[in-house]
Design goal:
- The protein is α/β, with parallel strands linked by helices and 623 residues long.
- The protein folds into 3 domains: 188 residues, NAD(P)-binding Rossmann-like Domain (Rossmann fold), CATH 3.40.50.720; 203 residues, Arc Repressor Mutant, subunit A; 88 residues, Structural Genomics Hypothetical 15.5 Kd Protein In mrcA-pckA Intergenic Region, Chain A, CATH 3.10.290.20.
- Helix content is 37%, strand content 14%.
- Strands 3-2-1-4-5-6-9-10 form an 8-stranded mixed sheet, sandwiched between helices. Strands 11-15-14-12-13 form a 5-stranded mixed sheet, with no helix packed on it. It has a two-stranded parallel sheet with strand order 7-8.
- The longest helix has 24 residues.
- The relative contact order is 0.11.
- Bound molecules: adenosine-5'-triphosphate (ATP) and zinc ion.
- The site of adenosine-5'-triphosphate has 21 residues, from helix 3.
- The site of zinc ion (ZN) has 9 residues, from loops.
- This is Ubiquitin-activating enzyme E1-like.
- Heterodimer.
- It holds the Pfam family UBA_E1_SCCH.
Length: 623
């Protein structure tokens, strides 16, 4: 039997031919990516480009089956191409060991693909690919998994929701005072060790860490000022990294003196147990007989003396590394820093031991190094089966896209459920308030070495009828508004414009009853170095109509809210009868949001309607 016989038989000749002629892009060759690439290659997609910026790590091997021990430290994209290429010699594969945000992956490049598949693990890259696919008008199959949960979504400009149509949850942050003064749970001490102590001793200062939220403690200004002073002292100790007393200096500062200062604030301990400071000499004495190799025992909960040993030993290892980096520093280089990495033993040992020492001071439960690794790395174990099912669903959705049957495309959710692992809903239309996809678009060419911001603003006023009240942004950065005209005479190149830069024009005029402001205008400005020097440095825009923003919906009254709830319950009951399932609980479980760092889009209430059937033992169809 020829290689094509089975796919041709199960998919039909027409779809199979389309697949063979398709040029697709897969971004990310990790957990989902390895499974997806295998599917794409075996299905016979004509040309597949793989982009991944990372190299293979030991911890990837349990689920990223294209990789083996011999590939550790090699490029994921290149190894994935080599290994998956052997599955089907008829497929053309191209690997890019690079960040998808690199400027050479521009809109023109994206336009060269029939479908883009996201197999990523972070919001930032997902949002970038979403924007590029919208700009290039290429369909995107977005996917994400967390533990047993998975999600697949088709995104098509003007026809479906985009990745940004639903707001995404922001990562959890903790009030500074809980972390720095009044911890009550192991996670508080872990965040302290990772985002404060480690950052102050080896990395950048705490101000830049998203896990600490100073705003929640604004009424506690005095204490915040004290904490700042404490951090300052730690910076001075950092300068003595090469001294034999370094461990004692750090220990006595954070586990003795800082704790004594906290104890002196009587008000703080009226309803809490006072922390008990540690004494360096005493703990050192107790730990004399303990070998530093105890750090390899990551499953048990270390004693105070064991934690002390790991603290002192890992601090020494990290300090040595830092001093080596400093020694190779050239003049003018920015001073080196170390970053916390859950997969790096030195940084993990330091964070685990420091967190536990602090826990013992505040009478909080000690955790094993293994548990601390999960908590510090926000890890939800990746499950190979979830990735495999999700990757399979991505390809089934790609068939709908190729056949131009978006009305049959589904937003699919996977969950661990005794009833049904896989459920779905129809694809939702774009959210009219979405500032990423419900925008007007324009392409202009410019000689960015000559064209100034003012040249652009003049075009907006004269050709596109904007008034004074506009803001101009590149990405999230504001470069112009009515009160900020510092950049108007600066050439675009000096404002960071490259071969292709997107600017967003926001209509800031007040919404009146007749006319709400216009939707955002996204202009792709491409550099044209050949533009004649006597010509206006920006090309003439085509005439486009820029829609008005939707009017904000009035807040629902209490009565309406009640009705809504009634309606939901009735709907759920109805479905329960139709499906013979306990949908009410199930739906709320699916409504849980996937952890942002590792997620696809926000999950919503879903309709249970999908079935997967195996036909003639040959093809899996989703109906
Ligand atoms: N901006 C980007 N450009 C290219 N590839 C990216 C980008 N951001 C993330 N990736 C890749 O997406 C893949 C996501 O895979 P996955 O979620 O399995 O993560 P992982 O890093 O392999 O595993 P883990 O995080 O669990 O250790 C990774 O290989 C990562 O390198
Ligand atoms: Zn959108």
């Amino acid at each position: 039997m020829g290689r094509d016989t089975r796919p041709r038989k199960s998919l039909g000749a027409s779809l199979h031919n389309q697949i063979k002629e398709s040029r697709v892009l897969m971004v990310g060759a990790g957990g989902i990516g390895c499974e997806l690439l295998k599917n794409l290659v075996l299905t016979g997609f004509g040309e597949i480009h793989i982009v991944d910026l990372d190299t293979i790590d030991l911890s990837n091997l349990n689920r990223q089956f294209l990789f083996g021990m011999q590939h550790i430290k090699k490029s994921k994209a290149i190894v994935a191409k080599e290994i998956a290429g052997k599955f089907n010699p008829n497929v053309k594969l191209e690997a890019h060991h690079a960040n998808i945000k690199d400027p050479n992956f521009n809109v023109k490049w994206f336009k060269g693909f029939n479908i883009v598949f996201n197999a990523l693990d972070n919001l930032d890259a997902r949002k970038h690919v979403n924007r590029m696919c919208l700009a290039a008008d290429v369909p995107l199959i977005e996917s994400g998994t967390t533990g047993y949960n998975g999600q697949v979504q088709i995104i098509k400009r003007g026809e479906t929701e985009c990745y940004d149509c639903n707001p995404k949850p922001v990562p959890k942050s903790f009030p500074v005072c809980t972390i720095r003064s009044t911890p009550s749970q192991p996670i508080h001490c872990i965040v302290w060790a990772k985002s404060y102590l480690f950052a102050e001793v080896f990395g950048t200062s705490e101000e830049s860490t998203p896990e600490l939220d100073p705003t929640e403690d604004s009424e506690n200004a005095q204490e915040i000022a004290n904490l700042k002073r404490e951090a300052e002292e730690l910076k001075n100790i950092r300068e003595k990294m090469d001294s034999p007393d370094f461990a004692e200096a750090v220990f006595s500062k954070v586990f003795t003196r800082d704790i004594n200062r906290l104890r002196s604030m009587e008000d703080m301990w009226k309803s809490r147990k006072k922390p008990e400071p540690l004494d360096y000499g005493k703990v050192l004495e107790e730990s004399k007989s303990i070998d530093a190799s105890i750090s390899r025992n990551d499953q048990s909960k270390w004693s105070l003396a064991e934690n002390f040993t790991v603290f002192a030993d890992s601090l020494k290892r990290l300090a040595t590394r830092m001093l080596e980096l400093k020694a190779t520093m050239k003049e003018g280089d920015t001073p080196p820093i170390l970053s916390f990495d859950k997969d790096n033993e030195d940084t993990l040992d330091f964070v685990a031991a420091s967190a536990n020492l602090r826990s013992s001071i505040f009478d909080i439960e000690i955790k094993s190094k293994f548990d601390i690794k999960q908590m510090a790395g926000n890890i939800i174990p990746a499950i190979a089966t979830t990735n495999a099912i999700t990757a399979g669903l991505c390809v089934l959705q790609a068939f709908k896209v190729l056949q131009n049957k978006l009305s049959e495309g589904r937003m699919i959710f996977l969950a661990k459920s005794a009833d049904r692992a896989c459920s779905s809903e129809t694809l939702a239309p774009p959210n009219p308030s979405c500032e990423t996809c419900c925008v007007a678009r324009l392409t202009l060419s410019a000689d960015i070495t000559r064209a100034t911001l003012n040249d652009l603003i003049k075009i907006l006023r004269s050709q596109l009828n904007y008034n004074e009240e506009i803001s101009v942004l590149t990405g999230n950065q504001l470069i112009y508004d009515i009160d900020y005209d510092d950049n108007v005479n600066t050439p675009l190149k000096d404002l960071g414009f490259q071969d292709e830069t997107f600017v967003t024009i926001v209509d800031d005029s007040d919404s009146d009853d007749d006319e709400p402001p216009r939707v955002n205008l996204v202009i792709a400005i491409t550099h044209d170095p050949e533009m004649a020097s006597d010509q206006y440095p920006i090309s003439e825009p085509e005439k486009i109509e820029i829609q008005r923003k939707p009017r904000p919906k009035p807040e629902p009254s209490q009565d309406q809210d009640d009705n809504l709830e009634m309606h939901d319950v009735t709907e759920s009951r109805k479905r329960k009868l139709e499906d013979g399932l306990t949908v009410l609980e199930d739906a709320s479980a699916r409504m849980r949001q996937i952890v942002p760092e590792d997620a696809g889009p926000v999950q919503k209430k879903v309709k249970v309607a999908e079935t997967i059937v195996i036909e003639d033992d040959e093809a899996i169809m989703i109906d």
